[in-house]
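Review box. Two proteins, two foldings.
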Amino acid sequence: MTRIHASADVDPSAEVGEGTLVWHLAQLREGVRVGTDCVIGRGAYLGPGVVVGDRCKIQNHALVYEPAVVADGAFIGPAVVFTNDLNPRAVTPAGRLKGADDWECVGVTVGEGASIGARAVCVAPVHVGAWAMVAAGSVVTRDVPAYALVVGVPARQIGWVDRSGQRVAERPADTTQA
């Protein structure tokens, strides 16, 4: 059964899959698609057109800006931020307030089963590979390979993880998914 808390702001054009829970004060903007059996935490924000696969968890106060795509089974931790602007400015060089036509959105993509730890920032455009793990507080400025474990500011790879998130000595063999 899909449950959307009364305080959540879900645009009428957003699609929320069967069995998904949308908690207090979450905002799902126009054209958002959320798959089945997901959890969208308190105060989470999903920008226009964001796509979230099945069985994902997007924790409290995560900010997922368009045009992000999150694959099945991914975990987006509390207060994670996905950016979407290569050259963020409030105004044009002429001093006019920028509008939607004054910039091009770039997105973050997250592969199947990947995990992004609490308060991490993913600076678009980046791709976090399938089953990769981004440590809490990291700042991802370049693509993360499938099954990689990355930490720090900027994030750097320090090892490999398996599908359960446990550190392993070598890259798992089933890395055909990115």
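Next protein.
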Amino acid sequence: MFEATVSATLPKAEFYDELAQQARALLAGETNRVANAANLAALLYHSLPDLNWAGFYFLTDGELVVGPFQGKPACVRIAIGRGVCGRAAETRQTQVVPDVHAFPDHIACDAASRSEIVIPLVLSAGELIGVLDLDSPKLARFDDEDRKGLEAVARLFVETIRG
């Protein structure tokens, strides 16, 4: 059994270093995308304070389709370019949104969400495979330190993908 022990009371840089170590250990030796996404979504949801959703959308037939997640039921399909997830997929750049209600074309899957961060998942060959999405009921929950830390964790996930 795996038990996460990351302390949310650490300074953010140290917190994300420990979170990355936990993620590396959790994903070690497994290459199944769904299994790793499920475990990583659970690790993030239970390790990061002030989240109401953490999960994955995978690129399938030209649109983002919900994958493993923790939180309330989610939107199943998101068009590339639509909402925060679609924008991250289209631009292949992390989107840090302090107030989702001020984001043009925001898709409200959970009315309690106030801020969001979405990290594109891109293979080394440049192929987009999906996005990692985290929502919070707190305004301005995510900052540049969160972006850097979560991008590092997302890279660990992408490195487990074969083919």
